[in-house]
Write a structure and sequence with these properties.
Helix content is about 65%, strand content about 0%. The chain is mainly alpha-helical and about 500 residues long. It has two domains: about 5-205, no CATH class; about 210-505, no CATH class. The termini are close together. GO terms for molecular function: acyltransferase activity.
Amino acid sequence: MPVMAASSMVFSSWQFILVYLPIVVLIYFLMNHLRWITAGKAWLVVASLFFYSYWDTKHLPLILGSIFVNFAIGTYLAKSHGPLPGDTGRLNHGISRKMVLAAGIAANLVLLGYYKYTNFLLDNVNALLGTAHTVPQIVLPLAISFFTFTQIVYLVDSYRGETAKYGILNYSLFVTFFPHLIAGPIVHHQQIMPQFDSRWTLMLRKSNLLKGLFIFGIGLFKKVVIADNFAVWADAGFDGGQSLGFFAAWATSLAYTFQLYFDFSGYCDMAIGASLLFNISLPINFNSPYKALNIQDFWRRWHITLSSFLRDYLYIPLGGNRSSEYQTYLNIFITFVLGGLWHGATWMFVIWGAMHGAALGVHRLWKKWGRPMPAALAWLLTFVFVNVAWVFFRAKTLEDAARVLHGMVDFRSIAGTSLPSAPTSDFAWGGWLSDVLLQYLPVGLVGHVPAYLAIAFAFIVVRQKNSIEIASASLGSAKLVCGVVIFSLAMYAMLATTSSVFLYFNF
């Protein structure tokens, strides 16, 4: 799998929260106050490119080249979308506009394919043919999957004649705006570009400042206090190599299920919150997916903008549900296999995508049979399936996945309580919780109780209103006090430990 360069300035780092974000916000609104509107946009572009290149400067030319090439193609397509009578849809020299669009999309996909899938394809060719071809290690550029898909959408809209009014500065800001650049949402130009041209967004607004910080603080808490701590148990179970008993296997799988949930949910909250500081509303990308009562509902709630992209630019072009019933099921399956492969160049992601494609097919059949299921049972089946599928998503090898899954059905070991060893020093709370528990519990249970309590706590939390629902109502004094407490706890945990990169940064 390609290797992604890593650094320390993530949304959940002190460098971002205490230095980068305040400076960018203050200078942007100062420029707007002085009526340097164009300079303010340019500042945001430069600041966003700095945020991107902070991870690895050698990939800065890549994103800049991608922006300029796609803008040139998009402008050419948009301005050639003339309303002249008898327009044949052809450019100069008889070149079809569809050919230009296809070439632009292909160029983006080839670039993505080279960085993300070269090693995967070569490994499979070597395994199939018994060869030993190698290439130098390819470092996966940060955010290439997201800015590639964003620009493909823009090219399609340009072909439809919807983007002719945008210049290079607006387009650059649309692509690079740092709250969504690294891990989404995959934004549509109509969702964000008009906001940058609105006079309403130019001045600092107290309501958006408070709402943005409130949502950002909840996201920070989800990441550093919840997700990063679940990661300790998940890593110990998945990567330890030891056999797992019944409870250990379920704790391992559920730890990753909730790690990924709170990690991605936390990122989405922080992206929306940071964007609101600039009076820019990003589309909701995460809407309590573990409340879903079926797998279709799950994909309407999880990574919403990716689901929309796959539907509009893959499933529908394949034929959607306009063909035979068999073809419809095949289109669903292909869409999700490719969606799995988008997440990473390993067969584990392909298996995960295939499982979800098959599950959506089963759900479609069940709906045709017209046999409604009790809500509690529907939720349980959906959650258990999603949890089992995440095992393949997280495991590095099929053997690791099999080891965890075997433990989950090993009822002979149900009497045991053993969990994979995980040092308490790895947790955000340090060792104080274990010190307290040692006064009341046997030594052998101290390392296990926090895991079970955390999983029980997570089940309760995911059933509550999410941060967007809470913030959509007025922020009274009680909510603001809670927000300050949550933010303070998250800041303490962040400064006490080293927060890991967000999981979706790897995709």
